[in-house]
Amino acid sequence: METMKHSGRLFVPSLPTLWPHMLLSRPKPGSLPPFSSPNVRYFYFARNAIWLTVKMLGLDSGEVLMPSYHHGVEVEALVDAGATPRFYRVGSRWDVDLDDVARRIGPKTRALYLTHYAGFPGPVAEMRKLADQHGLILIEDCALSLLSSDGAVPLGTTGDVGIFCLYKTLPVPNGGALVVNGPRQYSLPEPPAPPSTSTFSHTVSALLQNLELRGGVAGRALRSAVRAVGHGTVKAASIERVATGTQHFDRRHVDLGMSPLTKRIALSQDLESIVEQRRRNYFFLLGRLRDVSPPLFNQLPPGACPLFYPMVVQDKAEVLARLRAQGIDAIDFWKRFHPACDASEFPEVAQLRRSIVEIPCHQDLSPEVMADVAHAVREALKSDRRTKKRAG
Questions:
Q1: Residue-wise pLDDT tens digits, 121-168
Q2: 321 FRET partner, CA 20 to 30 A, in 5, 13, 218, 373?
Q3: Residues 165 and 214 in one domain
Q4: 20: in domain
């Protein structure tokens, strides 16, 4: 593959950026989970909430049925806490095979684990019914689906617990949450705040991304200069920076809480507006791309807050390289199975891992930027097809 350089025209980050005024905005009551939930604990990572859920509910003595389509870090957290994962079938449209789930429930099964993918609701009512029939715990993983609802029902409120990640959807430096639903109350300790230096480092990084987003070439140059100085300062001062978005569970960080700054920024967001803007951008891409790449979903369910636009491609590496060369931070979505899961048993998931690319559609991106993104994606897909024809 040819080496490509950043064209300099676009800067489209995969996650929303932190606007300076957000540091001064007043917090307001949260209208959606986890902010509206009466029984919630906040953590640095959502994976910490998974680990604590296993311990809190006594799942470390049994098996948890999990989707074969997974990131891997959630499986690592569950295994580290002492539970045994078993996997069920997920189809080519992220559809859970409920019959397969029912078949795999055995005497050692203690819980069902449902992941809501990229803001699209999974069959939570059906999973709730299955769990109740067998006396099992239902865990709702909403790490990719903050602010999403299944119609009028917010995701994360049907399961016995709901698990959320904040920094994938909101411009915050860290943050995960565990919501306990139902009448039973658990005495959960408040985890300690993370190192302030780590929070500061992530906050500055998000502000610099915003500068580049708004400032074009000049903003990019200034961001590069500041980052170079900042990296040297961090290294010289031996500042502890707990990275987010990492691929593996780290027991050293399991007791780490969410920073007060994260909560302040999160509670100052206009959550309903974020949902509206993400849906608008998703529909924009759907309308512009469906003729060149058959959409994974041809519609957006009511209440869904899309984390990204899932695009089906033939050659991930080629398309990703071309998009990144245009300044679009497209992401290779979940390409690997966790070693505990037999990939040969789930061919539909193996194909998903080979073909899904994340196209950003978050709230920072205006209709004008989305038009540029759609054009760049169309060109990348055309180039991909021309390459295939020459190779054939």
A1: 999 999 999 999 999 999 999 999 999 999 999 999 999 999 999 999
A2: 218
A3: no
A4: no
- Encode pLDDT of 68-94 as tens digits: 999 999 999 999 999 999 999 999 999
In a domain, 248, yes or no: no
DSSP state of 22: G
Cβ(59)–Cβ(65) below 8 Å? no
CB 142 within 8 A of CB 155: yes
Edge-to-edge strand order for the sheet containing 84-88?
40-43, 176-180, 161-165, 137-142, 109-115, 63-67, 84-88
Mapping DSSP to helix (H, G, I), strand (E, B) and coil, where does residue 26 land? coil
Q: What is the mean pLDDT of the chain?
A: 89
Q: What pLDDT does 41 receive?
A: 94
Are the C-beta atoms of 156 and 179 separated by less than 8 Å? yes
Length of the chain: 392
Closest CA to 345 of 164, 103, 143, 169: 103
pLDDT over threshold 80, residue 243: no
Distance, in Å, from the CA atom of 315 to the CA atom of 339, rounded to the nearest integer, reads: 24
Please state the domain count of the chain.
3
- Whether residue 295 is contained in a domain is answered as yes
What is the domain extent for residue 285? Answer: 271-388
pLDDT at 6 (0 to 100)? 43
Return the pLDDT at 186.
Answer: 79
- Please, which residues have CB within 8 angstroms of residue 254's CB and are 6 or more apart in sequence? 48, 51, 52
Q: Which of 32, 20, 46, 18 is nearest to 271 (CA)?
A: 32
- Where residue 23 falls among pLDDT bands split at 50, 70, 90? confident
Which class for 287: exposed (0-12), middle (13-18), buried (19 or more C-beta within 10 A)?
Answer: exposed
Q: Which residue has the tokens 């943050």?
A: 175
